[in-house]
Amino acid sequence: MSVTVRSFAKINLGLSIGERRSDGYHSLETIYQTVGVHDLIRVDAGRGTGIEIRCRNPKVPCDESNTCYRVVDRMLRHWKHRSKVVVTIEKNLPVQGGLGAGSSNAVAAMFALERELKEPLAAEDRLRIASEVGCDLPLFLLGGCVLGVGRGEQVYPLADLSPISCVLVTPPVAVSTPQAFREWDKLADAQRVNDPSNPLRTGQLTCPEASDTLSKFHRSAFEWLSDLGFKNLNVSGVPTQKDGDRAGNPLLDLVRAGIENDFERVVFPQYPELRDVKRVLEREGSEYASLSGSGSALYGLFGSRERALKAAERIGAEGLTATVTETLPRERYREQMFVS
Questions:
Q1: 175, 249, 259, 185: which is closest to 222 by C-alpha?
Q2: Pairing mode of beta strands 50-55, 165-169
């Protein structure tokens, strides 16, 4: 018998990049939001030993470097369990698209293996294993709207929010996140040279001329979180308390405050076609448009599904792949995760 799990994508509602830390990572501040588009992950466990990854997409590694493999390996070691585990990945989400697909796949494999072996992990062990494998994994333990800090792996569930229509555009290019960070470091170094009187300081999260943008991120996020009352701020794994919906469109209230994705400053010059996609989304009536993560996927938030469908149709007529989905609240994230 096997267990199949939907592996949902995420978008980033604002993302600020800090300086490189002593561990080689950059400090980040972002608000993650899960959305309805997904891959499918099937896990089978039986007699024998070993881990096998199956996927028809040639861009997905099927060896020990696959995030699903790494999570399953750690789980089996933690349990001291011997089993032959086969993970089958049905890809719908783009590879290197900024939608967290690989990380989401790994967490989906975690939940599926727990159910397949009927041996749930403690919340702290889920979080530990997820953090060991990758920075984006912990957010998928929670789903919904999530504050991410540190390397992005320190996650705090925010209040569950009503769904908002979203158009995802997935251009046929792949953006390397490590390369995007290297370009950011070059930009920071250039600012040190060009403005020696105002050098980057330890703990400052962005370049001098971008400090106003970061201040907007801090102010809007702080005010928004204050309004929410800092509900359910914990890192206990899967939340157990149901959050109430707020009236109106609180996500749109947040993005309208002016938060931005710092990756756009270095990715758009390298891939000008992505900047053009953002302009198309804005032209077609999105309330807010942005790169997701380091890209290449972009998204637009729309006031109604009807407007999103019309925009996707017009964007598709221009030869771009546009998908209509919606933001996925935490409660629905958990309800819709398991297929079988």
A1: 259
A2: unpaired
CATH code of 117's domain: 3.30.230.10
Compute the distance between CA of residue 204 and CA of residue 185 in angstroms, rounded to an integer. 13
Q: How far apart are CA 18 and CA 28, in angstroms?
A: 6
**What is the 8-class DSSP label of residue 241?**
S
Residue 78 has what DSSP assignment? H
Do residues 337 and 41 touch, judged by C-beta distance below 8 A? no
DSSP states of 85-147 as a string? EEEEEE--SPTTSSS-HHHHHHHHHHHHHHHHHT-PPPHHHHHHHHHHH-TTTTHHHH-SEEE
Residue-wise pLDDT tens digits, 261-288: 999 999 999 999 999 999 999 999 999 9
The residues annotated as belonging to the active site are 10, 136
Phi, psi of 44 (to 5 degrees): -120, 135
User: Strand pairing of 154-157 and 298-302?
Assistant: unpaired
Residue recorded with tokens 């209230």:
253
**What total of structural domains would you count in the chain?**
1
Using the predicted structure, report yes or no on whether residue 176 has a pLDDT greater than 70: yes
Closest Cα to residue 17, out of 175, 217, 160? Answer: 217
In terms of residue numbers, what domain contains 134? 1-340
